[in-house]
Amino acid sequence: MKTTREREIIDVAGRFPILAQQVYGKRLVYLDSAATSQKPDSVIDAISSYYREFNANVRRGVHALSYKSTEAYEATRAKVAAFIGAEDPDEIVFTRGTTESINLVAATFGNEVLSEGDEILLTTLEHHANIVPWQMAAKRTGARVIVAPLTSDGDVDLQFFSRLLSERTKIVAIAHISNALGTVNPVKKMTEVAKRAGAHVLIDGAQAVHHQKVDVQDIGCDFYAFSGHKMYGPTGIGVLYGRKELLEEMPPYQGGGDMIASVSFEKTHFAPPPQRFEAGTPNIEGVIGLNAAIDFINEIGFDAVTAHESSLMAEIEKVLRQHDNVSIIGNPKQRVGAISFTVRNAHPHDVGTVLDHEGIAVRAGHHCAQPLMRALDIPATVRASFGVYNSVDDIRALGAALAKVEELFG
Q: What span, in angstroms and rounded, lies between the C-alpha atoms of 70 and 268?
């Protein structure tokens, strides 16, 4: 017997206008939310309302529209802080996305704390966005990147992870949830171990904040990065959480308007965080949309989100195992939001194309995780990922389409 709240989630697809369309004459089944989520009408309406009613630059005008725009912008900062359990809204920096958030930390904090012989510890699960910025930081500073391997099930080998930590480890950068396998890392435990070794910790939370409740103070991390477009918000807006005392010590990432206290041709005095890291006109519409996205998630509630998505994961694992030619990649202790698989005799790109013609959108490729694919000794996978708008019927439609893939490729 479904509760009222569970029925609300299952029926929430009607609030996503894009899902009403057909693809190749078939009902659209969107299973690519790990790449980007679809947007509810409330987010779309909030962005439209901003442009129709109070479009103006923030913090720069003395007129009514600018006041209203600034008020909405800063209200979102406070809402984000509450959403992830930050102690102070000033610990929230708006960026273009997770990628820019990580690059910001690597280019500023990284330059401050890294030197010749230091180490940056990553895991094999990382997205390129949590690899390349650290390689660049290592090249600038003389540090080196080291990598914690996985178990055969696709979890980070925690014993190996702990052994890699030493007094040379200055930064640990880890995904909260793998975008490719859906593996959930025990980030609180990993942070505790890293902190005992004296390291600072950044967590890539792009795949986590919309699937489960995040509390950065409980985790104990120094930095936490995520993107609006993964959590039912607009593209081009992201968040960097940083502990206030660390942000205050970090130099600016970019120079320009609004990140200054005063400027002369001889010297510039920079604004305190978070303004120090928000040079130029920000993505105001993105911030407004992010506010609405958080309201949407809070309206549903994480208890209901977790229950619904757990049922979807159980269903998709069951459906995939019904196909003899399908191999699920990894068997982690906890998997959330995404699952990867291969089909015997069929390249993932071919599988994705066949599924597309059945109206089913999935991801096929290396998922910006080429080192992980090499570790798994496979070139690519098919990835199905979901959000609150998906249903058991979506998963069963995927199963029916996979039967056609098997028929085509033997």
A: 24
Does 221 participate in catalysis according to the annotation?
no
Domains and CATH numbers, the chain: 4-30+302-409 (3.90.1150.10), 45-298 (3.40.640.10)
Q: Which residues contact 401 (CB under 8 A, 6 or more apart)?
A: 354, 355, 358, 360
Cβ atoms within 10 Å, residue 392: 15
Place of tokens 């509630």: 301
- The residue type at 4: T
Q: Are 189 and 207 in contact (CB under 8 A)?
A: no
CA distance 282 to 102: 18
Q: Can you give the pLDDT at residue 10?
A: 54
Q: Is 49 helix (H, G, I), strand (E, B) or coil?
A: helix
- SS3 call for 294: helix
Please answer whether residues 259 and 270 qualify as being in contact, where contact means their C-beta atoms are separated by less than 8 angstroms: yes
Tell me the pLDDT tens digit for each residue of 171-226: 999 999 999 999 999 999 999 999 999 999 999 999 999 999 999 999 999 999 99
Query: pLDDT tens, 3-46?
Result: 444 444 557 999 999 999 999 999 999 999 999 999 999 999 99
Q: Strand runs (DSSP E) across 273-319, as ranges?
A: none
Least Cα distance to 118 among 167, 173, 56 occurs for 167
Q: Which of 368, 375, 378, 392 is catalytic?
A: 368
Output the six-digit token pair for 190: 């990993």
